[in-house]
Specification:
heterodimer, A: alpha/beta, Oxidized Rhodanese, domain 1, five-stranded parallel β-sheet, 10 helices, 5 strands, 45% helix, rod-shaped, B: alpha/beta, 7 strands, 39% helix
């Protein structure tokens, strides 16, 4: 009797085994749920954000704009009001709050262009960059110092003091030329146009020679 | 005999499978740090809530200061009662524990660095990990005779009106400058009187 029962159970043994294996496999499917999170790992994000690689200097940006490099898109993350008052040439306005709205994605998540983010300094632009970096968006840059730095270096560059090196002077000359490109007019430009003052020819002084008094002639 | 061989094979396969599962379970590690909120919510939170503090608000006993600069700078000078956690090591186990403890005890961590921009990244990362008890101290540090001087700053403040500046420069150029020509006083011409040749004196 007992043997018969065991034999009966044993005839199901493959099914039981298969059942156990299926159960375990099901467990494996459930496990990775913990790990699922949006974007790259926090550790990776941290190391990306700490490296200053993303920053672009204002000089470099000015060079890009002047040469009309077509591989760059400028994105202004400030609000509409500041955007309306001043922005860089050909910049697109995506306020920080609307960073993930529909429509902005096509500018941010693409492989064709390099995107340069900027704001008044680089605080908001950095925040936008960090969030985009977490999502794995490539080709993103941040303008170091933002519009404020743009003003002090490109629009209104400081004249180097007399004791500064030649390199400083050269940099100043480039920046000044760049600022002229962006619409600043310098008084020297105007002076050059002013008519030259014609120097008056020095008056000729005609010295009237006095008639010599008749010299006393010797005579006897 | 055939039946026995079949069972053998199956049991070997089964044990191997179970072994693989057990090894998998033992080596499975939960990732240390997991984001608590997604990017969209983070964006909404950072744009709608204020997370800045000023030096004046630091008297609050619930605030714990955290210096995210490196150890060298921390030792050179830091705010009173600050803890040093370098930005690059903010996600290490010990440091995350510090933040967790602060959260449990309902204290607010105040992060600061040499300027608000520097604190931005560590702040935002911790924020995304779910630590909403952190704030950012908007200060700028400088040293005067090896003494740390901190003062409040405002981020994203526009320092100059560029449009106005450009317009001004254009306007200046349009008003034609009247070039003043300083008329130099006529030079005095000193005529050196020529010495008269000694006249031929009469003589005998």
């Amino acid at each position: 009797m007992v043997k018969k029962k065991i034999a009966k159970v044993l005839s199901f043994r493959y099914k039981i085994l298969a059942g156990v294996l299926l159960l375990l496999a099901g467990g494996l499917v459930l496990l990775p749920k913990y790990q699922k999170h949006e974007g790259i790992k926090p550790e990776e994000l941290l190391s990306n954000t700490i490296s200053p690689e993303r920053y672009m200097t204002t000089d470099r940006l000015a060079h890009i704009i002047i040469n009309q490099d077509p591989s760059f898109i400028l994105i202004d993350v400030r609000d509409e009001k500041s955007f309306a008052s001043y922005t860089l040439p050909n910049a697109i306005n995506i306020p920080l709050e609307k960073l993930f709205d529909e429509g902005s994605d096509s500018y941010l998540n693409q492989n064709q262009f390099d995107v340069v983010l900027f704001s008044n300094d680089n605080f908001y632009a950095d925040q936008a960059w960090i969030l985009c970096n977490r999502l794995g968006y490539k080709h993103m840059r941040v303008l170091k110092g933002g519009i404020n730095q743009w003003y002090t270096t490109i629009i209104n560059p400081m004249k180097p003091a007399e004791n500064m090196s030649a390199a400083e002077y050269e940099l100043y000359a480039t920046r000044k030329a760049a600022s002229m490109f962006f619409g600043v007019v310098y008084p020297e430009q105007v002076k050059a146009e002013a008519p030259e003052i014609v120097k008056e020819a020095p008056k000729k002084v005609i010295t009237v020679e006095k008639k010599k008094k008749a010299a006393a002639e010797g005579g006897c | 005999m055939k039946e026995l061989e079949k069972t053998k094979r199956i049991s070997i396969a089964a044990t191997l499978f179970i072994l693989a599962v057990i090894i998998g379970l033992l080596t499975y590690k939960r990732p240390k740090n997991v984001y608590a909120i997604n990017t969209k919510d983070t964006l909404e939170k950072i744009t709608s809530t204020s997370y800045f503090t000023t030096l004046e608000e630091l008297k609050n006993p619930e605030y714990v200061l955290i210096d995210i600069r490196n150890q060298y700078e921390f030792e050179k000078g830091h705010l009173e009662n600050a803890i040093n956690i370098y930005a690059a090591e903010i996600l290490s186990e010990d440091n995350i524990k510090v933040f967790e403890e602060l959260k449990e005890s309902n204290k607010t961590a105040i992060l600061y660095g040499n300027n608000p921009q520097e604190v931005n990244a560590p702040f935002l990362i911790l924020y995304q990990l779910g630590f909403d008890n952190i704030k950012l101290l908007a200060i700028e540090n400088s040293y005067l005779q090896n003494k740390l001087i901190s003062k409040n700053t405002v981020v994203e403040k526009s320092t100059a009106d560029i449009t106005a500046f450009i317009n001004e420069s254009v306007k200046k150029s349009n008003t034609v400058e009247t070039v003043k020509t300083v008329v130099a006083p006529p030079k005095k011409v000193i005529t050196v009187e020529k010495k008269k040749k000694a006249a031929a004196e009469g003589g005998c």
